[in-house]
Amino acid sequence: MSLFIATAHAAGESASQPGLMANVLMIAVFVAIFYFLIWRPQSKRAKEHRSLIESLGVGSEVVFAGGLMGKITKLEGDFAVVELSRGVEVKVQRASVVSVLPEGTLNSL
To answer: What is the model's pTM?
Structure first.
């Protein structure tokens, strides 16, 4: 039994540890992976959504995050008044717009 323990201790002493450059390289690889897989795509999506929100106008047919569809009748700062059907208007945040539909889509549904 003591033979195995001595061998294990001897193996631990002779193993070399990675240098400082290897540690810095590993951190740089993790940062690059984080940037290309998480940060950059999220930034791109946010920029596209921001341009979508800025392009909204009266008469745009939109879909909201909750699944509601309607036509914008009035814009009031960060809010939009949307007509869901004749006589039914709802005030919602402009940021909740998911997509803009082509003109005339609501009439065909």
So the answer is: 0.69
